[in-house]
Amino acid sequence: MAAYGLYTHIASNRFRSMLLLAGLFALVYVMVYAGALLGEALSNGGAPLDYYLAAAMGDLIKAFPYATAGTALWIAIAYFFHQSIVDAVTGGESVTRQQQPRLYNLLENLCISRGIPMPKLEIVESEALNAYATGLNRRQYALTVTTGLLNALNDQEIEAVLGHELTHIRNGDVQMMVIAVIIAGAVGFFAELFFRTFTNFGYYGGYGRYRGSWSSSSPASSDDNRRSSGGAGIVVVIIAVALIALAWLLSQLVRLALSRSREFLADAGSVELTKNPDAMISALRKIENRGELPGATSAVMELCLDNPREGFADLFATHPSIEARVQALVRYAGGHDPGPLALPSEARLGPHDQPGAHETAPPRQKGPWEDAPRADASASDAPSGPSSGPSSEPSSGPWDDPPGPWGRHR
To answer: Which one is catalytic: 159, 165, 288, 302?
Structure first.
């Protein structure tokens, strides 16, 4: 991990953030052009291919200011209200020191010891084990953890998780992820809007119905032109749909521009802050396969400490596997891997359950009096004397044959 270079990673994140924002505008313009192609094909049937392309370009030029303003408005809304949107999806709520003294003190001590500005603290009521950071500037930064995480991890492990998320904030990873969510949301919105608008054949382009010289030709040539123009319309529709699908796919693949190395670097940053690689490793092992937030979208899950993926979906995962992250900490930070860890039973019980109620009781160990059980045992079998009974201390006497406190076997 040392080969990546922390400051190079931060600078690269800032540069790529600007590229992604510029790419968002480009994708929106592609969407508008594709929508104009669909509109022209549906409203001007029978025109040749070059007319459709030119008319769609004219529509794009006319719509350019509105598309730019709409995209800028989307970015502004996401800039100021993305935290509220994420909280609405996950159910996150801000907490104070009085409400969560343990968590607040751990975060505050970690920030003070390293001179890091204190982000806002939020809690999600969920049994899932996860955490995430959000924000685009120092005044917006917030760190959110689940109640399941608080119940399952000890103080050192929680401190390691907090250090991981603080490193994401310091490295600029949070800004990158928020921008990626903005891009995916904006392009997805425009894609759905165009498909809903232009599938009802109600759109009329700015160039009106095509009236070309091909319509005044001889009947034979007119039939040929109609057939070729009809084919051009189909081709235009195919091109438009392909452009919209491509723009949407690129908006989803923007997440792949977010290198998986950011998670390795955040793990390393946590070790640098806490000086405790074993705590980070044990926290990851406890979180492993237990981090899925109910109701959270894929975009929100990509903000989290762990985003579990399996099978083919792992090819497009934005997080490396827990195994890979643990092995990196073992190799480069000198930590020790305990292997997959089971959570304490109390962390999985509901409020009306008793600890151990769902667990199989361990076999009761036999006492010395149970070596030779008898079906016909009765009270008359008990030996006389002051030391009779299984709870009495054994004493020697003529009745101890064989030796033992229970008397003679019959």
So the answer is: 165
Residue 394 corresponds to which tokens in the numbers above?
């054994």
Look at the pTM and tell me if it is higher than 0.90: no
Q: Which amino acid is at 274?
A: T
DSSP three-state, residue 170: helix
317 C-beta neighbours (distance < 10 Å), count = 16
| 165 annotated active-site | yes
pLDDT tens for each residue of 97-147 = 999 999 999 999 999 988 888 999 999 999 999 999 998 888 889 999 999
Helix or strand holding residue 80 (H, E):
helix 49-90
Q: What is the torsional sign of CA 300, 305, 310, 316?
A: positive
Contact (CB, 8 A) for 337 and 327: yes
* Other C-beta atoms lying within 10 Å of the C-beta of residue 174: 25
Q: Residue 176, class by beta-carbon neighbours within 10 Å (0-12 exposed, 13-18 middle, 19+ buried)?
A: buried
Cα–Cα distance between 21 and 26 in angstroms, integer?
9
In angstroms, what is the C-alpha Rg of the chain? 34
d(CA 110, CA 132): 17
**Contact yes or no for 388/382 (Cβ under 8 A):** yes
Condensed to tens digits (0 to 9), the pLDDT of residues 296-307 reads 777 788 888 888
How far apart (Å, rounded) are the C-alpha atoms in residues 104 and 121? 7
